[in-house]
Amino acid sequence: MDVYEAVASRRAVRAFTGEPVPRATLDRVLAAATRAPSGGNIQPWHGYLLSGSALADLTRRTGARVAAGDPGDEPEFPQYPAELPAPYRERRSAAGERRYAALGIARADAAARARAVARNWDCFGAPAALFCYLDRRFGATQWTDIGMYLQTVMLLLRAEGLHSCPQKAWPVYHRTVAASVGAPDRLMLVCGLSIGYADPAAAPVVTDRAPLAETVTYLG
Ligand SMILES: Cc1cc2nc3c(=O)[nH]c(=O)nc-3n(C[C@H](O)[C@H](O)[C@H](O)COP(=O)(O)O)c2cc1C
């Protein structure tokens, strides 16, 4: 698979088969992803890879919080600005519509939407998940490093026939994750990443993108 194919075939998969991912495959991907760039080559990320009983324990504990109506821990950073301006608001809403339409969930069915969101904390049935942490003393540049690292992992997973879903949902319950993985206080959970084989029975959600002219300006 070349890089264009890996980029084109990567999508946020929200239904996995549960088939275990061999440890050797995860090792290959995570070892190759260490080549991701970072400002000053400081490699500010720290990942915890959970599978088997470790992941089952985390999803059980988080699932209990979700089922109890627990809204989550105090946020350590805002997920979005309080007011999401145009055109970002429209793009976000369009992605949500696509997602719920693929699941057959009506716009007004808030309970079904909440159930779909709750699947985040079951990792959508994935057999493995990476929890990506950043030292909380770092700033904006190191956050961009984390994005590059995670995209590198996601593209390498495609080369192995695997899919993934990056999840900002996991920091909502960051204390439960930290307790499960044993993260030291100096680290902050930035993103979860569910990893596994896509369930072929689940309808894929195909998101669109803004035209190139809206997001890139050529000069010269
Ligand atoms: C940093 C980040 C966090 C995300 N968090 C979630 C999440 O918590 N739950 C989820 O279902 N999708 C999540 N997504 C997936 C996005 O919704 C998805 O990437 C976007 O709609 C574009 O769709 P595509 O990835 O299928 O191309 C996240 C993506 C990124 C990059």
UniProtKB/TrEMBL annotation:
Q: Is Flavoprotein among the key words of this record? A: yes
Please indicate which superkingdom the organism of origin belongs to. Answer: Bacteria
Q: What are the entry keywords?
A: Flavoprotein, FMN, Oxidoreductase
What terms describe the molecular function in GO for this protein?
Answer: oxidoreductase activity
What positions does the domain Nitroreductase occupy?
Answer: 7-197
**Which PANTHER family does the UniProt record give?**
IODOTYROSINE DEIODINASE 1, NADPH NITROREDUCTASE
Which protein are we looking at? Oxidoreductase
Source organism per entry reads Actinocatenispora rupis
